[in-house]
Amino acid sequence: MIKGLTKRAQKVLSVLAREEARKYKAEKLLSEHIVLALLREPNGIAFQCLGKLGINPEDMAEAVVRDLPKNQIPFNKKGDIPASGRVKMLLETAANEASAFNTESLESVL
């Protein structure tokens, strides 16, 4: 998907987020699916930050699911789910942020 991803970030984007997209029958990978994937990783930075902010990850996941687009169309469950334009922009921004912090790893950004 994008170079410079750590194994954990690859798992979140390539496996977990796509599982979330399939679960909700999305035609494209949305940023909401990435958030849901991050919430499945209790040892990840994002999950830990939420806890420090006093945000319950389960409550956040419920809110994200509640706000997912409802007009999704059926798709081939075995095929790849393309990233939405918003996700592409999110990943480009993350890569730029990693570069600005003089790191090639997107783990700390994701």
CATH topology: Double Clp-N motif
Mean pLDDT: 84
- Number of helical runs? 5
CATH arch. level architecture = Orthogonal Bundle
Fold and architecture overview:
- This protein has a single domain (7-100), classed as Clp, N-terminal domain (Double Clp-N motif), CATH 1.10.1780.
- It is an all-alpha fold and 110 residues long.
- The radius of gyration is 14 Å and the shape is globular.
- It contains five helices and no strands.
Topology:
Elements: H1 7-23, H2 31-38, H3 45-52, H4 57-66, H5 85-100
Helix pairs in contact: 1-2
Briefly summarize what is shown.
The chain has helices spanning 7-23, 31-38, 45-52, 57-66, 85-100.
Keywords summarizing the entry:
single chain; 110 residues; mainly alpha; Double Clp-N motif; 54% helix; globular
